[in-house]
């Protein structure tokens, strides 16, 4: 999960503007497809937050590397979403 989150974050940094789009679609359809694709990613990342229970004890602190990485990935996804999608995620 940690490696997948890291890989996904890096892919989204490079290609996040074009994910989910189909070449034979109109501009409006591409925009809609892209937002739906981003929304699906957000849902999956939120599931990781809800289901991940791993905590690594370092000194007197607990670190959750999977959730930290997924939070960074979520930040990258939200940069590519429209305002409505961001508000849906927060709500």
UniProtKB/TrEMBL annotation:
Coiled coil: none annotated. It comes from the Eukaryota. GO terms for molecular function: ATP hydrolysis activity; DNA binding; TBP-class protein binding. This is BTAF1 RNA polymerase II, B-TFIID transcription factor-associated, 170kDa. It comes from Mustela putorius furo (European domestic ferret). The lineage of its organism: Eukaryota, Metazoa, Chordata, Craniata, Vertebrata.
């Amino acid at each position: 999960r940690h490696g997948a989150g890291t890989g996904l974050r890096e892919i989204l940094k490079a290609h996040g503007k074009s994910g989910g789009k189909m070449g034979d679609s109109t501009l409006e359809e591409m925009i809609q497809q892209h937002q739906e694709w981003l929304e699906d990613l957000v849902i999956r990342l939120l599931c990781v937050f809800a289901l991940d229970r791993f905590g690594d004890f370092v000194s007197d602190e607990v670190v959750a590397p999977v959730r930290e990485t997924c939070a960074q990935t979520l930040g990258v996804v939200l940069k590519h979403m429209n305002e409505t999608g961001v508000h849906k995620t927060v709500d």
